[in-house]
């Protein structure tokens, strides 16, 4: 009796399964066409997206603003090429040293900015994501012709025979260079008239003719440059005294 009940249950279960399969409609030609159409549409979207990705890349550029108009910025790069920048509602702007709100309306011709965004290879334009004002360092190479030891300044005669006032700060990194020793720590007190130097710095905000030195390298064994005119120290006016007070300059190790 027990076995008959089990067999009957199995037969009943199989019967229900058969009905379930019978109730499921078989795929029709219409359903198959709809599925193929959806697959083809998906393939087209993927192919279009891949094509778009191949046309764009992340890119950054630094340049000087030539024009700001509506939502477009025109930059002149270091290679003297024009780069067109587009901005939109999610582009972020910032200015170094400024805590106030900053936007495209604050950008002016002549400003140096860095731009990071999406470059389109076809249009050769950059859709900016970040626009920041920057201060590009100035580089000078020349010969020391006058030294103001009291104010930690000296006058440099550049290779194109222009006098440039140089200011040394406590943060200035001073080094000397020789082929044997390479770069070694140096001090302002060791600088001498006639030394050939390489300088990187930034124009003083209040006096653009004065360069605030970030780094200085004294080329101790460098030969004299014949293109630099020989000028006696007395023929070069001393830099104007500063009101900053005394400074203690020591080599940065």
Short overview:
This protein is of the alpha+beta class.
CATH superfamily of the domain at 138-235: Nucleic acid-binding proteins
* Element-level helix/strand string: HHEEEEEEEEEEEEE
- Number of distinct beta strands: 13
Helix and strand content put the structural class at alpha+beta
Roughly what fraction of the amino acids lie in strands? 35-45%
CATH class of the domain at 138-235: Mainly Beta
Give the strand order of the largest sheet, numbering strands 1, 2, ... along the chain: 1-2-3-6-5
The proportion of residues forming helix, as a percent range, comes to 10-25%
What would the CATH topology of the domain at 138-235 be? Answer: OB fold (Dihydrolipoamide Acetyltransferase, E2P)
Topology summary:
Blueprint lengths: L1 H22 L5 H27 E14 L2 E6 L4 E5 L5 E4 L16 E9 L4 E9 L4 E11 L4 E6 L4 E5 L5 E6 L3 E4 L10 E8 L6 E10 L34
Parallel strand pairs: 3-6, 4-6, 9-13, 10-13
Antiparallel strand pairs: 1-2, 1-5, 2-3, 5-6, 7-8, 7-12, 8-9, 10-11, 12-13
